[in-house]
Design goal:
Keywords: Membrane, NADP, Oxidoreductase, Transmembrane, Transmembrane helix. Helix content is 48%, strand content 11%. It is an alpha/beta fold and 363 residues long. Strands 3-2-1-4-5-6-7 form a 7-stranded parallel beta sheet, sandwiched between helices.
Length: 363
């Protein structure tokens, strides 16, 4: 008996492990790092090279330039994000929507093991049963009444929430005209309106917390560029990004003790986008949830405002909309951004595939 959801075609090659992100990381910690840059002139001096020798002057100039850019980067972050808040994990109550699987589950498990109090809101049961330090609340975040009820339960059971991670999402992966009105309502309610519901329910608690709080918004690159078969998802994620930026501006004035973190990932290797093929494995590698989780956790732990884009192109995607329209069209065709969803299976399809495999094994 064949599975109704065959494994999508892969685009792996001999250089699959190599990506522009890996090269950028290597360069940042070597050629473009101040410590390494200053090692070079020191080595020249160890060889008794004259101070005025061209290699010595060039290496000094390079080290000074790299150090200057790192200083500017630090100043830029301080101006953009301000001072961090103090974070004590034993006092933190972390609420994660869509935390029963994927990225949300990873973050929940890490914080649960580290001693924080974690509440997971999801309509699905948790994939691994009960995780240490994690309390599961069955909640459809697209229903404002359920969100309000669960918010009251969390504050009663666990204490005042200090971190809200809006991570819940659903991907239907259909052309616009193939979507029913009910599906459109479901997609926009889960991917966009749920952020308003959770913020309305939990922000007052974050504002009351003595040490301040953190709001994490998980958006998507698709909200910047759009893609075929993702009209509803792209519209919602564009709205989520705009909501986060407006909220950050409001909180800076009214509640400066609350930090905001915007996460804009590319394609994640989670069941949500199972089957989608990244257009270019070198320029647009699939992002592992553990890498995004590490970045989010680091920002929360540091008590910082942050803008996280992964992989590398996600941090520069805004420049796409600056290009002339003709160039944008060529870039889209070359990148294949509108072709990726043709192999989409998704979470529901993956479950069906697993059931088919289980039936074969039982047979």
């Amino acid at each position: 008996m064949a599975s109704p959801y065959p494994t999508p075609p892969m685009r792996d090659s001999w250089f699959a492990p190599v990506s522009i992100d890996m090269l950028a990381k290597v360069l940042k910690t070597s050629f473009f790092h101040p410590f390494i840059a200053w090692i070079v002139p020191l080595c020249f001096r160890a060889q008794n090279m004259a101070w005025g020798a061209p290699p010595m002057l060039v290496s000094f100039a390079w080290a000074a330039f790299i150090s200057f850019t790192w200083i500017l980067y630090a100043i830029n972050n301080r101006l953009a994000f301000g001072l961090p808040r103090e974070v004590d994990l034993s006092e933190e109550v972390i609420v994660i929507t869509g935390g029963a699987s994927g990225l949300g589950l990873l973050i929940a498990e890490v914080y649960g093991m580290r001693g924080a109090t974690v509440a997971v809101l999801d309509i699905q049961d948790m994939e691994n049963g009960e995780a240490r330090g994690v309390t599961y609340y069955k909640c459809d975040v697209s229903d404002k009444h359920q969100v309000a009820r669960v918010a009251a339960e969390i504050e009663r059971d666990l204490g005042t929430p200090t971190v809200l991670i809006n991570n819940a999402a659903v991907v239907l992966g259909k052309p616009l005209l193939s979507l029913t009105l009910a599906e459109i309502d479901r997609s926009l309610s889960t991917n966009l309106l749920s952020h308003f519901y959770t913020l309305h329910a939990f922000l007052p608690a974050l504002a009351r917390a003595p040490g301040g709080g953190t709001v994490v918004t998980v958006s998507s690159v698709i909200g910047h560029v759009g893609a075929a078969q993702l009209a509803d998802y792209a519209a919602a994620k564009a709205g989520v990004t705009a909501l986060h930026k407006s909220l950050s501006a409001e909180l800076r004035a009214s509640h400066p003790q609350i930090r905001t973190v915007l996460v804009t990932p590319g394609q994640l290797s989670t069941p949500l986008f199972y089957g989608v093929q990244t257009p270019n494995a070198f320029l647009a590698p699939v992002v592992e949830p553990v890498d995004v989780a590490k970045a989010v956790i680091a920002a929360i732990d540091a008590g910082q405002n942050a803008d996280i884009g992964m992989p590398l192109y996600a941090r520069w995607v805004d420049w796409y909309n600056v290009l002339p329209l003709g160039v944008q069209s060529v870039v889209r065709r070359m990148a294949g951004v509108d072709e990726g969803m043709k192999t989409f299976v998704g979470r529901e399809g993956l479950r069906g595939r697993e059931k088919g495999v289980a039936a074969v094994q039982a047979f």
